[in-house]
Predict the structure.
Amino acid sequence: MAILVTGGEGYIGSHCVIALMDAGYDTVVFDNESTGFASTGRILSGIGSKGKLLGIMKGDLLERKDLDAVFSRYDIDAAIHFAAFSQVAESMGDPAKYYRNNVGGTMNLLDAMKDHGVKRIVFSSTAATYGEPEYVPIDEKHPQNPINPYGRTKLDIEYMMDDYDRAYGIKSVRLRYFNVAGADTLGRVGECHDPETHLIPNILKSTFGDGRTFRMFGTDYPTRDGTCVRDYVNVEDLADAHILALKYLENGGKTDFFNLGTNEGSTVKEVFAVCEKVTGKKIPVSEEGRRPGDPATLVADNKKARAVLGWAPSRTLEHSVKTAYDWEVRRRSEC
Ligand SMILES: NC(=O)c1ccc[n+]([C@@H]2O[C@H](COP(=O)([O-])OP(=O)(O)OC[C@H]3O[C@@H](n4cnc5c(N)ncnc54)[C@H](O)[C@@H]3O)[C@@H](O)[C@H]2O)c1
């Protein structure tokens, strides 16, 4: 039996493949390499662990025959579904691309699971499904009113998963990530997006003396130092939560959803200071006006994931910054 990991050559998916293998699961990666990398697949293939990477299939969720091929070839027990497009700004300019890939792609996956008798799925949802916070920390009872097409595609998928459970008995766990950060502690995989919209890699990219200045948007928010507060959850802690979610479903858990965050927020200035400390460099920065659509504070309440899944995030922001920096240095020297 194996776990199918869609998007396993991407940032979070690749860390999860390693965590799965470390936990003794055999895995199969399914990825179209649109934002993920064949080079990541090669690295994953070279990792020996308790579980095996049985295969990497280059396939597209939008091609039902690709999905049928993977479910026919391997004995799939459950799916962990990362594959999606996730750039908010792009989703505003081209919502069709997002509805097609995220909603249409997930529907194909769920249909293939239904037809091949696979009854469990862990899904990458997002804090973006909540929209403008009505209160913080945000718990799972907070209303879901996403403010961009990306967030709406993820919410549509959550509804779809409820319906597929009711009608076809496919149980799902939807994990609503806050701001994912860091890289593999052993430096094997890390984050590589283009364009990069995440704060930590963007700050770190300005440490290499190539004339890049980090642009800090908004310093007049009603927060402790005027910059936005976000909840940075370490990518290896996040991967651990997927293993726990899988075990929860294996043990007969019902369809459910959980926030994955740390309960703590850091301001942009605090993250910036950690980046300067970890790299030992003075990072060039320009303070600019607010960007539209950035709420002042987004922090998770993670009590439900702690209580039901037994998840306990443990890695610090400093660890996330250090591993992200080590990864960026390595990536630059090898590319
Ligand atoms: N990174 C974050 O902070 C964050 C926060 C909240 C939610 N998420 C969600 O987590 C998931 C993973 O995010 P990530 O940062 O690792 O993104 P990523 O872009 O690095 O990885 C996505 C992977 O999915 C693959 N893919 C996309 N469309 C596909 C398709 N049609 N068929 C097959 N493969 C396809 C890509 O090639 C890539 O390898 C996404 O669903 C994203 O929406 C991420």
Summary: The chain has a mean pLDDT of 96. The radius of gyration is 19 Å. The first helix runs from residue 11 to 22.
